[in-house]
Amino acid sequence: MENLGKTPHLLLNTAKGKRYFPLVGKNYWTIGRGRDNDFTIADHCISRNHAILQSTETGEFLLIDLGSRNGTFVNSRRVSIPVTVHNEDQVTFGKTEVKFFCPISDHQTDDDMITEPLDHDTIVLHERRLTSVMVVDMRNFTTLTRQLDEEILSSLIGNWFRQAGEIIRYSGSWVDKYIGDAVMAIWFHGQNEVPKADIMQIFQAVSDINTMTKKLSQQYPVPFELNIGAGINTGYSMVGNTGSGDHPDYTAIGDTVNAAFRLESATKELGLDVAVGEQTYKSLTDLTQAQNLFYQYTVSLKGYDQPTITYGIHFEDLQQFLQANIITS
Fold first, then answer.
1. Helices then strands, each counted (H, E), the chain
2. How many CA atoms lie within 13 A of 128 on its CB side?
3. pTM for this structure?
4. Confidence of residue 243 (pLDDT cuts 50, 70, 90)
5. Which of 124, 252, 248 is nearest to 188 (CA)?
6. Contacts by 38-42, CB closer than 8 A, 24 or more apart
């Protein structure tokens, strides 16, 4: 372990020697005092679930504080919003200092990008699966960062990420990506159809995240009520398992994923809370109140040549839809 070569990793110096945390085999890693974390650090100044390191598709690493009591710092600067960490940055969790190493990321160009082979324990499978992708974004995030105290902002955003993750896990999925002020989650379905129970879980998750966000508005001295928007899209994706051993880590790529992000962006243009793709809507058309509460729109999504049909709904109507289908879902 002394020579990790080009492998991104964290280095912690302890009284017993050096501890290395390789950043491979997953999309993100949790850090904290609790044993359920990927990297457990026994320090009473570190929160049970303290922070997350997210690997992006461009090879960068985002550091996200989860509303920890004593904070996360990069080169002595507090992390209040997700920040990019660079090779040899000093990262402090509470009072524990570690060093981040990513030897090739800061010097590579797009032409130089090389995919490093994963170790022999890593399984890489690719298959075409029917999936639903949900992207949830916090509204007016940039304005919030300019108006809130750094410590309050860090606690607020960290709590939002942490609670959103808990809601998504309870709903049968996991956070596949943390992106600045948004989260992305994936649900896997049967081979050819989407069970109604799956769709109801997804919409319940969106509703619960909205409720949680409203509660945070009351708990923090925010300059305006916090709001979210969501895009949900269903279709076939290429699914890969980049996990290892007993910890598989699935992700999906393709047009279904891309369109979910675009649909979320479209909610701002249309003045909606939630926008769903045609396939998602077809999976719920025979549910009570679906055709009365979801309205059809035609939008031009960035990167798409042809106009796209989407169906939108506001959170008040979504709550009515969920209540109407409690028995039939």
1. 7, 19
2. 4
3. 0.77
4. low
5. 252
6. 39/10, 41/12, 41/93, 41/96
